[in-house]
């Protein structure tokens, strides 16, 4: 072993909420380890969220290990500055062996067992590796975007900050998941003309029958449902998150209501050629499907209330406030005054630096509760790793405790 090579029991890749949750448990259990973070511990919250970003889940669900939310508004929704304060408070709550600005560039199996990890110009040999780098490394922008007139400014949702960042004129937002729907509202509240390409994302009401829907679902034990018991099984990981907002105390995001107020709604974007946007004929279907999902959630709450004999105010069924007329008429971007496009069509993971047989034919990692078939190799912080909260403040602590138990060979209680 050369001078530039070191041996350590555990290497954690990623110093965000997942990797640091793992570190917290290993520190408590006295397990020597190191955490490598390519940027800084809070960079995703600080550098990849818009100015008016806020949580869409209530503050009481923030439960990082040893660091539950202790503010004055458990049923409120932290804004960006408060989220940063919360995460930085967690980082400062213990002495993690964190190496920031240190990217892991290679992980391979070691010939003598364990793994060889190259990070920051040094080589580390570890018996255990926890990949907690997340599922959102590469922003998705379609290939045809490069052929769009450069006079039309294009940004991805991770680079969007506020309406003033974009040139004067109308904005085309592509994608109606959580980010897209919230960015549409952000632009609309700044009196910008907005067009939205509506995809298949479902929606959910913020409040129903006197309570936040999240509170009802928590009482119904939805957040304890594991992916093994989910009706979709592994397919749950591919579902787009429901759009809703916590802005200004929280409210529904009803795209039909936006349309009534002047937002242009279109179907799924098919392509843009010669500055003409072409859409699939699915706008009515996508809006109806989103409303059906919301109605199904409400029905499940109704059934729970009836079953448990709970006294709760009644609420009239939702009535659509707008219906589309044209299904897929093309949109001339320049004639519509569109000067910018915000791409809100997600991310894809990047695992090119991992040379370990833990991927399927689609190059997706395969695990059960974060444990792969490669001995000592784990994933953490991914959507539905085990439950709905696995990739969030609410559930990552439980997953980290479980993996700490796999590493130490003993039961590790959840903090």
UniProtKB/TrEMBL annotation:
Organism superkingdom: Bacteria
Molecular function via GO: flavin adenine dinucleotide binding; monooxygenase activity
Keyword Oxidoreductase included in the entry's annotation: yes
A Pfam family per the record: Pyr_redox_3
Keyword terms: Oxidoreductase
Gene3D superfamilies the record matches: FAD/NAD(P)-binding domain
Protein name: MSMEG_0569 family flavin-dependent oxidoreductase
Organism the protein comes from: Acetobacter vaccinii
């Amino acid at each position: 072993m050369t001078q530039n090579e070191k041996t350590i029991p555990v290497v954690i890749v990623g110093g965000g909420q997942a990797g640091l949750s793992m570190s917290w448990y290993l520190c408590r259990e006295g397990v020597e380890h190191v955490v490598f973070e390519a940027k800084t511990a809070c960079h995703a919250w600080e550098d990849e969220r818009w100015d008016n970003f806020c949580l869409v889940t209530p503050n009481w669900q923030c439960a990082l290990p040893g660091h539950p939310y202790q503010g004055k508004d458990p049923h409120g929704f932290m804004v960006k500055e408060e989220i940063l304060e919360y995460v930085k408070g967690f980082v400062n709550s213990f002495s993690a062996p964190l190496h920031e600005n240190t990217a892991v560039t290679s992980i391979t199996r070691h010939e003598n067992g364990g793994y060889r990890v190259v990070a920051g110009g040094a080589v580390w040999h570890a018996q255990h590796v926890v990949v907690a780098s997340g599922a959102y490394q590469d922003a998705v922008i379609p290939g045809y975007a490069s052929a769009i007139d450069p006079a039309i400014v294009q940004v991805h949702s991770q680079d969007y900050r506020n309406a003033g960042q974009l040139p004067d004129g109308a904005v085309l937002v592509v994608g109606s998941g959580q980010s897209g729907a919230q960015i549409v509202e952000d632009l609309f509240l700044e009196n910008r003309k907005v067009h939205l390409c509506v995809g298949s994302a479902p929606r959910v009401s913020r409040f129903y029958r006197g309570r936040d829907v999240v509170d009802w679902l928590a009482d119904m034990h939805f957040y304890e449902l594991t992916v093994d018991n989910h009706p979709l099984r592994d397919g749950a990981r591919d579902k787009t998150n429901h759009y809703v907002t916590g802005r200004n105390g929280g409210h529904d995001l009803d795209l039909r209501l936006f349309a009534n107020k002047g937002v242009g709604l279109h179907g799924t974007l098919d392509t843009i050629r010669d500055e003409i946007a072409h859409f699939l004929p699915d706008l009515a279907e996508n809006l109806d499907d989103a409303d059906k999902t919301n109605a199904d959630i409400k029905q499940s709450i109704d059934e729970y209330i009836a079953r448990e004999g709970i006294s709760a105010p009644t609420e009239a069924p939702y009535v659509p406030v707008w219906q589309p007329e044209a299904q897929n008429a093309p949109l001339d971007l320049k004639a519509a005054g569109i000067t910018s496009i915000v791409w809100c069509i997600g991310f894809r993971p990047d695992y090119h630096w991992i040379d370990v047989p833990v991927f399927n034919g689609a190059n997706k990692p395969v695990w059960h509760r974060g444990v792969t078939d490669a001995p000592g190799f784990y994933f953490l912080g991914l959507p539905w790793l085990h439950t709905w909260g696995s990739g969030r403040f609410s559930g990552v602590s439980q997953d980290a405790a479980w993996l700490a138990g796999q590493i130490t060979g003993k039961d590790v209680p959840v903090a």
